[in-house]
Specification:
Elements: E1 3-9, H1 17-28, E2 33-37, H2 56-67, E3 70-75, H3 84-94, E4 107-112, H4 120-132, E5 143-145, H5 161-181
Parallel strand pairs: 1-2, 1-3, 3-4, 4-5
């Protein structure tokens, strides 16, 4: 049976390079993975005062995260870290303390940027946060996609053959990672 994977895109921009990359990754995934977007753009900012009566958007988001077997984060880098919308979503999913929707779900991080370093800082900021939340994050292969604006078409296709081969291998490795680390239902 295919494992259900939630795909969270760190950029909420409509024509985001990372959203296009996420679509490409979904198309490159092996049949053992069933990928679906988990949207973060409408989440109100996390505020601990609201833990007792969380906004409906928080509740729906946590329910969606809880319903999947694994998580794939695809994100740009903002100021050498992850975008605020992504950090907000991670925080919402982890709260209230002791009720994290992330706990034990295998994950992977892909970052992409028009720059040469491909979101290296963001990739590691996301990983650092996920370690604390008990998300077993795939270590290899790492995926920092530099010059992504030239590698992913507007319709979410990988335009460079070498990049496509790399991402196919990444998705196969992720499928293996999920199979080895998914918590039994």
């Amino acid at each position: 049976m295919a494992k259900k994977v939630g795909v969270i895109v760190g950029s909420i921009r409509r024509d985001s390079i990372n959203r296009r990359l996420a679509k490409a990754l979904m198309g490159l995934a092996p049949p053992t993975l069933m990928l679906e977007f988990i949207e973060i753009g409408d989440l109100p900012l996390y505020n601990q005062d609201l833990d007792a009566t969380p906004p409906v958007q928080w509740q729906a988001f946590k329910k969606h995260v809880s319903s999947v077997d694994a998580i794939l984060f695809v994100s740009p880098e903002y100021n050498r870290s992850m975008p605020a919308a992504l950090k907000n979503a991670i925080d919402i999913g982890s709260r209230p303390y002791g009720q994290s929707a992330w706990n034990g779900k295998p994950g992977a991080v892909v970052t992409a940027s028009p720059s040469a370093i491909g979101g290296f800082g963001s990739n590691h900021a996301v990983r650092q946060t996920l370690v604390f939340l008990n998300v077993p994050v795939m270590q290899q292969p790492e995926a920092y996609i530099g010059h992504a604006d030239k590698l992913v078409s507007a319709d979410g296709q990988i335009t460079n053959p070498d990049t496509k081969v790399f991402l196919e291998k990444f998705m196969m490795a992720f499928a293996d990672w999920v199979a080895r680390n998914a918590v039994a239902a």
